[in-house]
Write a structure and sequence with these properties.
The chain has 17 helices and 8 strands. With 407 residues, it is α/β, with parallel strands linked by helices. It has 3 domains: 173 residues, 3-Layer(aba) Sandwich (Rossmann fold); 79 residues, Orthogonal Bundle (Helicase, Ruva Protein, domain 3), CATH 1.10.8; 98 residues, Arc Repressor Mutant, subunit A (Orthogonal Bundle). The chain binds a DNA duplex (22 and 22 nucleotides) through helix 15, strand 7 and strand 8.
DNA sequence: CATCCACAGGAAGATCTGGTAG
DNA sequence: CTACCAGATCTTCCTGTGGATG
């Protein structure tokens, strides 16, 4: 701990603090980690394996449609089973099993989804510049040439259909009859209950050959999951009594979302660790909740288009809610003009509100006020103050606050 | 019990950016 | 280089609608 080499002292001290106190392996708490054991999902794993098993013989498994709320283990189970199938296939010398996992919320265009499917088959596609039809025909030719079976997992398919329609799904279900050699099996995952009803009947019957439903975890089950994962992630006795129970009960209240629970646990640990403590307390979990919310807000705001930010700001400045989109739009116009920007149309603001709603930062529910028309009631899901704080770091907006302070 | 409000939200397309193919 | 493509953002124009009220 000498005071020579000022820089390295800071580095060493920081590393010293980070290296030990709480975690053995925090990666196992990350949302994309697939554990070797999934508590309370054995039945689902067995069933999915049965359905996909024909793939090992090169036969096409039935298309599967999986429904369940967020954090009920749909993605984990599917990835788990596919990984195991691949391991099994290799160990028995049955050759490679081709599958593609695509999250349709992240890859939200037909083009990108097709690109991922081609990639999974070992083909190559530029990430932009071609027509979608061209990518689709490349997909088919790669399939045909190799004669392989591709299991295409489309996670959060409802986003694809909502944004682009069911054209792609329809065409994918048709591929099998168009090709002589290649085959495609679809695994659709969604958390939207009424998704199936919105589909074209042809697609519905084809995609829903087999259906599976994942029910939410209750608090006891969440506790098992957390305990299992915590034993891998944390040092023994790094968690004080009640931490796991508290995380489980928070997540159980939010419709049994295991991802939320694990996130909460990880962030709680990180908070305790940052402060050099050796034990995570319930208080740390409470602070983790706030921190997760803050991060969500910062992320959302960062990716929003300029007028999206203004709409959000208007809601925050109004104390977090509006009774109608008409009121909101008037206030928004004032703000935009005040900032020297040309306001966008009300139609566009309506779409922006839908986006904010989907991102979860706002709830925009359609209500009918009878004679007084139909509108959306908008409620901010986070603290207005927290939002305004984020905006005061945005150079295109923050000067408004500074100016109003000067005057 | 028909009317009619205040919008929702679909459809088509304009404009811009940033890319590919040949 | 030209011709073309998709995505993001936004506009214009539009049809549809639940339920309080007259």
């Amino acid at each position: 701990m000498g005071s020579r080499g000022i820089g390295s002292d800071i580095v060493f001290d920081t590393l010293e603090k980070l290296s030990s106190s709480i975690f053995i392996n925090r990666e196992v708490l990350r949302p994309d980690y697939i554990p070797d054991y999934l508590p309370h999902r054995q039945e689902e794993i067995r069933r999915l394996t049965e359905v996909l098993a024909p793939a090992l013989r090169g036969e096409r498994p039935s298309n599967i449609f999986i429904y369940g709320l967020t954090g009920t283990g749909k993605t984990a189970v599917v990835k788990y089973v596919l990984r195991k199938l691949q391991e099994y296939s290799r160990s028995k010398g049955l050759g490679s099993l081709y599958y593609a996992y695509v999250n349709c919320r992240q890859e939200d265009t037909t083009y990108r989804i097709l690109t991922d499917l081609v990639l999974a088959l070992g083909g190559r596609v530029p990430f932009t510049g071609l027509s979608t039809a061209e990518v689709f025909s490349r997909f088919k030719s790669v399939l045909e040439r190799s004669g392989n079976l591709l299991i295409a997992v489309l996670d959060e398919v409802d986003f694809l259909v909502k944004k682009r329609g069911d054209e792609l799904l329809y065409r994918l279900t048709r591929v099998n009859s168009e090709l002589k050699r290649g085959k495609v099996s679809l695994v659709g995952i969604t958390n939207d209950v009424r998704f199936m009803e919105t589909l074209d009947p042809r697609v519905r019957s084809s995609l829903g050959e087999i259906e599976m439903v994942f029910s939410p975890y209750n608090a006891d089950q969440l506790r098992d999951i957390l305990a299992e994962r915590a034993s891998l992630a944390f040092k023994p006795s790094a968690l004080s009594d009640g931490v796991i129970d508290y995380c489980a009960s928070v997540a159980a209240r939010e419709h049994g979302d295991a991802r939320r629970a694990l996130d909460l646990l990880r962030v709680s640990g990180e908070i305790a660790e940052r402060e050099g403590k050796e034990v995570v307390t319930v208080e740390d979990v409470r602070r983790a909740r706030d921190e997760i919310e803050r991060d969500m807000v910062v992320d959302v705001v960062k990716t929003l288009p300029y007028h999206g930010k203004l709409v959000l700001l208007v809601i925050a400045l109004a104390g977090g809610s509006f009774e109608s989109t008409g009121d909101l739009y008037m206030k928004y116009r004032e703000l935009a003009r005040g900032l020297g920007a040309e306001p966008v149309t009300q139609r566009r603001v309506s779409d922006i509100l839908s986006e904010l709603d989907m991102l979860g930062i706002v709830t925009a529910k359609v209500i009918n006020r009878g004679r007084y028309g139909k509108t959306r009631k908008v409620v901010l899901n986070v603290e207005p103050k927290a939002l305004i704080k984020v905006f005061s770091n945005d150079p295109r907006i923050s000067w408004v606050f500074k100016n109003s302070r000067d005057r």
